[in-house]
Task: inverse folding
């Protein structure tokens, strides 16, 4: 049964359009015609989830499978969550409005270390037990597991964090989907379908799923005392393989929301994976090998996608767009094809060393977007340590090219706390920014401004720096160093990441199964993604309390103090040099280094710890690294890690070797374009790098020139019914823009720096109000038959926005906004006391008989103003009266009001004020319907 949520999704909650599930290109499959019903549950608000490319791709792929459907759910806002709990209504899927418990499987995206609290919130709102053990116990009948159909849905998670280290979240999920999901999820669906038809128990089903490469079922594994995770039964794999799939751009086209989302554009993936080898970068390690998409597929997907969606902007997505060799050719081809559509291209953060005039040309135009580069470090030495592969000369060339091509503001990303960093490196960030500004000065040009984001390095699993930590005290000290330096630089806006968030991400991200109780308790204490932004102190307090109550505050202090840090031995070298301690002589050093590593280890471990430290730090760097790796300390490179059972393809030994290369500031070339780095990925399980040579760059056909020709003007009368009443006025304007593009109507544009389509809606309608008399004007560059225009427009409009009439008007006629004289409304009003039809009529007559009804109104400037409501009211009549069987004593009132250009329009709430004034009874406004707008001549 569908949940009766219509009474909850009302205009009094924030952005009710989030929950309608009626977006363009949403897929509605018949419930009874499918066997397996999925919900992709995104643990963030709709604006984030609905624009996530992975969410869209998997939604489209699952709905393309026979006998399977996929619905969606998002983290509700606090207002709707409160309503759900107050009314005991379970969380629902947005399209079918069915409770999440009615589905077979729920898939959560886990892409952030602290995001699991939102998942627990959604499970709780859905009435689903939070842990797999609780769900298993709830499904037991007489000691046996019942069939899938009568149990709670299977709960799984995918995404970067789930693939990287699922252990802190193992208590909550039946299984994890590791790596790319395009092929993996359909395989899971087939196993579910077979198991459901065979009547498998939950355990049998999970055991079958565990045989699929990429599926990790944590209940079949145990954590040993040393922290390693091992199978508890022989019929599951010892290590779970990360899945790799080839990107298919066609599946990126879908879901055009009515409300504005975070990424309100078409996004097409051009390259998956990155082999640059930045040593701090987890996505680069977890997505290897690199796979280019064929340029023709990209162009075709963009062209079809822009037509199908009506977007005026598209984005090309990759971890490193600049490494897609066909980027200039693809960008220019699309720019030429869509030259007359006022379309703009945006790119995520890109490699500054590859930014040139070709890329600048595809990004430029009438709506030049922002530009983001990530140098990461302020000195060449630090960029070599992290294997950024970027020189000062390349940095300057890229920034200067952008400045010469017209950009006056650029965003730069830097990190502090990187391994081996000194204060000189930290201050080098400020010096680099100042140097770039000095080099980019010119007569008649604004000075180059920068927006800087200074983030705190957080070590990530499966990277060479996974054994490193920095204390929060050090982070704060380095932030203060930079703040002092930045005060002397003009044209700078700087954002620093809060060190408490970084420490918490580190603690959870590199944690083990013991953190499950911390995550749950943090959620119980109110921690959620939104709380980090609304009240950081409260969110941090919730997490800190949860850690303390779990008895793990000692472990968190290790993170805060930077104690999980193999580099501490090097850092202590400076203090050891100042101590009056006899260090080995050159002869003794040569003797020690000539010994076999096992002998060296036995010799050093026989010494007291302070002497061990001073001795090791006196040895050459390669010997230090080798000895550290062999020492049986809590910081050994060889100790088991909670994520060692996840086979990402990269050898742990290679990570150790790359860590040593970092100590030596040695660069590893990008294996997509140079020799193999022998990381271990390439092979039958993960494939190989796919690099496609660029086609020739097409000749630039010129920038978009807005067609300002006004050949025809059409006035359209339309309605706003049903769910579309919950779409705001700004969302409606954006909808008209997209509809015109999809319908290929020859719309005229305004001039100026940001040309806009000449579409003019007469006036706004209150959120939640319906209408049968709205007006919008369109100006076209060439004449069209009215019936043809109406047919093309109506075909692309939602069914709840009917087109009633289209008329051609003179080009010189004033806009409908300027001609508005009056508006007619029907409002449904309930009296909060027992009434009769006679009383209602008396109140109406009393209002009509008055010449003055004064109302105190506060202006936008905050001043009080008395206005006479009566002189704005033209007509007032009772259309429908209550009867004795009415649940509420409600009536329908029709009124006609002045629509003055002074902005003082008589609102429905003020009609209630008049009624309350004459009746001395409280009233409630139940519904607003605008019947018509009346224009003057």
Result:
């Amino acid at each position: 049964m569908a949940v009766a949520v219509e009474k909850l999704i009302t205009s009094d909650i924030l952005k009710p359009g989030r929950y309608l599930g009626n977006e363009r290109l949403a897929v509605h499959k018949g419930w009874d015609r499918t066997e397996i019903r999925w919900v992709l549950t995104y643990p963030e608000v709709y604006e984030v989830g609905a624009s996530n490319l992975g969410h869209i791709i998997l939604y489209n792929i699952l709905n393309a499978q026979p006998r399977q459907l996929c619905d969606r759910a998002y983290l509700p806002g606090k207002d709707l969550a409160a309503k759900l709990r107050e009314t005991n209504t379970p969380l629902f899927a947005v399209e079918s409005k069915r409770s999440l418990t009615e589905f077979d499987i729920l898939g959560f995206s886990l892409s952030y270390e602290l995001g699991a609290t939102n998942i627990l919130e959604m499970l709780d709102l859905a009435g689903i037990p939070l842990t797999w053990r609780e769900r298993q116990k709830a499904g037991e009948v007489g000691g046996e597991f019942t069939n899938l159909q009568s149990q709670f849905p299977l709960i799984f998670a995918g995404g970067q964090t789930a693939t990287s280290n699922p252990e802190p979240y193992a208590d909550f999920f039946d299984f994890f989907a590791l790596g790319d999901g395009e092929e993996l999820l359909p395989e899971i669906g087939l196993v579910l379908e077979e198991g459901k038809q065979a009547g498998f128990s939950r355990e049998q089903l999970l055991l079958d799923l565990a045989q699929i490469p990429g599926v990790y079922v944590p209940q079949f594994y145990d954590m040993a005392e040393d922290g390693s995770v091992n199978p508890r039964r022989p019929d599951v794999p010892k290590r779970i393989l990360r899945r790799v799939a080839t990107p298919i751009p066609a599946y990126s086209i879908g879901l055009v929301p009515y409300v504005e989302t975070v990424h309100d554009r078409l996004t097409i993936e051009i390259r998956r994976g990155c082999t640059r080898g930045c040593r701090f970068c987890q996505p680069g390690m977890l997505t290897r090998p690199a796979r280019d998409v064929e340029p023709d597929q990209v162009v075709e997907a963009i062209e079809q996608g822009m037509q199908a969606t009506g977007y005026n902007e598209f984005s090309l997505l990759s971890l490193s767009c600049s490494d897609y060799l066909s980027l200039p050719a693809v960008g220019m081809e699309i720019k030429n094809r869509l030259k007359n559509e006022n379309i703009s291209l945006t790119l995520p953060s890109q490699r500054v060393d590859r930014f040139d005039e070709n890329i600048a040309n595809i990004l430029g135009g009438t709506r030049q977007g922002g530009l983001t580069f990530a140098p990461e470090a302020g000195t060449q030495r630090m960029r070599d340590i992290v294997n950024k592969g970027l020189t000062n000369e390349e940095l300057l060339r890229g920034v200067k090219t952008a400045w010469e091509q017209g950009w006056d503001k650029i965003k730069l990303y830097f990190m502090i706390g990187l391994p081996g960093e000194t204060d000189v490196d930290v201050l080098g960030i400020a010096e680099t920014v100042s140097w770039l500004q000095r080099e980019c000065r010119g007569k008649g040009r604004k000075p180059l401004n920068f927006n800087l984001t200074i983030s705190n390095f957080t070590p990530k699993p499966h990277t060479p720096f996974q054994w490193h930590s920095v204390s929060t005290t050090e982070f704060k000290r380095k932030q203060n160093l930079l703040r002092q330096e930045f005060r002397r630089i003009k044209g700078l806006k700087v954002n620093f990441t809060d060190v408490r968030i970084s420490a918490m991400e580190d603690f959870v991200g590199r944690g083990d199964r013991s953190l499950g109780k911390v995550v749950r308790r943090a959620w119980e204490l109110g921690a959620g993604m939104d709380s980090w932004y609304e009240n950081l102190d409260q969110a941090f307090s919730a997490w800190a309390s949860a850690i303390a109550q779990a008895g793990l505050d000692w472990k968190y202090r290790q993170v805060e103090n930077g104690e999980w840090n193999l580099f501490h031995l090097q850092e202590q070298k400076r203090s050891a040099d100042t101590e009056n301690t006899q260090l080995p002589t050159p002869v003794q050093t040569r003797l020690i280094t000539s010994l076999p590593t096992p002998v060296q280890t036995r010799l050093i471990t026989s010494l007291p710890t302070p002497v061990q430290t001073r001795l090791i730090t006196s040895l050459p760097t390669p010997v230090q690294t080798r000895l550290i790796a062999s020492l049986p300390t809590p910081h050994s490179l060889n100790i088991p890690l909670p994520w060692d059972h996840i086979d990402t393809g990269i050898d742990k030994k290679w990570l150790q070797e790359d860590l040593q290369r970092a100590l030596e500031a040695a660069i590893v070339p990008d294996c997509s374009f140079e020799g193999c780095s022998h990381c271990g990925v390439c092979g039958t399980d993960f494939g190989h790098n796919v690099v496609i040579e660029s086609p020739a760059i097409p000749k630039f056909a010129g920038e978009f020139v807005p067609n300002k020709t006004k050949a025809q003007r059409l006035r359209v009368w339309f309605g706003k019914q049903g769910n579309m009443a919950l779409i705001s006025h700004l969302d409606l304007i954006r909808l008209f823009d997209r509809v015109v593009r999809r319908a290929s109507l020859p719309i005229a544009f305004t001039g100026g720096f940001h040309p806009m389509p000449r579409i003019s809606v007469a006036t706004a309608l209150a959120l939640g109000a319906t209408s049968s008399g709205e007006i919008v004007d369109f100006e076209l560059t060439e004449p069209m038959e009215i019936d043809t225009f109406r047919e093309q427009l109506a075909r692309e409009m939602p069914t709840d926005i009917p087109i009633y009439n289209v008329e051609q008007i003179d080009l010189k006629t004033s806009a409908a906004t300027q001609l508005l004289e009056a508006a007619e409304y029907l409002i449904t009003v309930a009296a909060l006391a027992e009434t009769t039809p006679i009383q209602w009529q008396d109140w109406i007559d009393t209002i009509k008989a008055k010449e003055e009804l004064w109302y105190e109104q506060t202006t936008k400037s905050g001043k009080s103003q008395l206005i006479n409501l009566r002189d704005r009211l033209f007509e007032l009549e009772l259309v429908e009266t209550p009867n004795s069987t009415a649940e509420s004593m409600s009536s329908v009132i029709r009124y006609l009001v002045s629509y003055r250009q002074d902005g003082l329009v008589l609102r429905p709430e003020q009609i209630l004020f008049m009624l309350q004034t004459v009746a001395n009874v409280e009233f409630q406004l139940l519904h607003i319907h605008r019947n018509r707008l009346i224009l003057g001549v």
Q: What stands out?
A: The CA atoms of residues 308 and 742 lie 6 Å apart.
